Amino acid sequence: MEAVVEQIFPSLTWRIRHIAMYPDQPYDFVKLENDFEGTHFGLYLNHELTGVVSLFVEGTVGQFRKLAILPEAQGHGLGKQLMEYLIDYCQVQNLTKLWCNARVNAKEFYLKFGFVATDKTYTAAGYDFVIMEKEF
Ligand SMILES: CC(C)(COP(=O)(O)OP(=O)(O)OC[C@H]1O[C@@H](n2cnc3c(N)ncnc32)[C@H](O)[C@@H]1OP(=O)(O)O)[C@@H](O)C(=O)NCCC(=O)NCCS
């Protein structure tokens, strides 16, 4: 399997987000109001867009949102490859911190990359979330 990551146009994220994260919600549910202010990365597996993640920077702090790998491609290290690319990118940009609203069922995934769970938790759209962060 050959997978490469590159920066993509915001609207390319929506289909992957919808299928991988919120298939039971209307398509527009996955669009973020500030999508056009973000930096978006796509993982291409054999030239097909298979995973996405979106980064929003304020000052030296980055928030990533909507990390998603297509269901049939999950569990093969692609999420790891995309996350490692994102972390490298943040370091090159000299960010001091990266954080996310993590689905609790993905918490262990983020722990592998050095993210720490905070005590901030909430529930939205039927999912439990915990804010996780990583300092550089
Ligand atoms: C979460 C997600 C991005 C992970 O991507 P993936 O390609 O399936 O994960 P990888 O195959 O790269 O896994 C890397 C490692 O994390 C582990 N892992 C992956 N998902 C995990 C999860 N939900 N919980 C615990 N561990 C997980 C893998 O076992 C693997 O461990 P290893 O390196 O020790 O073998 C992907 O499953 C996904 O898109 N899920 C649906 C949407 C979602 O939940 N997004 C995150 C919202 S916060």
Automatic annotation (TrEMBL):
The keyword Acyltransferase applies. One of its GO terms (molecular function) is acyltransferase activity. SUPFAM superfamilies: Acyl-CoA N-acyltransferases (Nat). Keywords: Acyltransferase, Transferase. Residues 1-136 form the N-acetyltransferase domain. Its EC number is 2.3.1.-. Pfam families: Acetyltransf_10. It comes from the Bacteria. PANTHER family: ACETYLTRANSFERASE, N-ACETYLTRANSFERASE DOMAIN-CONTAINING PROTEIN. This is GNAT family N-acetyltransferase. It comes from Pedobacter albus. The lineage of its organism: Bacteria, Pseudomonadati, Bacteroidota, Sphingobacteriia, Sphingobacteriales.
